[in-house]
């Protein structure tokens, strides 16, 4: 990755657009009123965005989900990047926490400094915006956008894309949430029909990463789901077929601990009952991008045979030729909120209903069949 650091490249200039105080004072930020969109940067000609740094101050504790970042290349009208701010930079659920990877990071204090090191080329200009969909103003928004100016951009340079998706997944079989065959024999799933789709791409390019945020309302392991990749219109099982969610994220045996590798890891795990609660996994394909010439359909099961109800949200990252398919419309901010936290009280109520179903004997323990 450092091979080119010593290669001199005459004709390329380094520039920055930032929120510095134009008067020479120390008010080095902009304010973004509720319900408005700020243009953070407008670049002309050819270049590459090399680094973005952001921090912000807002009374809305959910601003990381209520603010939307968008990026446009080469005069396009539909953004190539569209995502809630926190989700894009590796903070799910509207929360602030530290996150470490090679291309993206949320740095101290407590993950309040958002960084991207993805290279983002453009040939005929670029524009980056931030929409504040909160009811509260962003009182101070600090940012750097560091970029290079190039004489021209080769046609072989793909354009950077990122798209946020979310789904409350449904149970597909009458037997119910049958993870680990707890409720009966498991069935097969020779299809992507009911999988959670995190990328549906038309064009030529390569896929380079995913942030995967899962909120699990039950204590059972959420991750028997296989990742499935259909390249250039091929049928199931496709060119790449996985063996389980944790395997896809380069870990094993149902992990529930934080771990940070430059390419993969677990930035957030729940401290609840079993695997109940919010988990953030990530995987970047920086040495092994998934290449496609015409299209890519990427999905993952939510539990084996799609047997679990989960709150899944993702940001997928890739490079491709333009034009790209329009992204699914972002849900209104009222529909982007978290699902309610399942509490110990809820679990106790489940137990109460189970006791009644078992005859309410005074010594029922909890594992009686």
UniProtKB/TrEMBL annotation:
This is DUF2961 domain-containing protein. It comes from the Bacteria. Gene3D superfamilies: 2.60.120.1390. InterPro entries: DUF2961 (IPR021345).
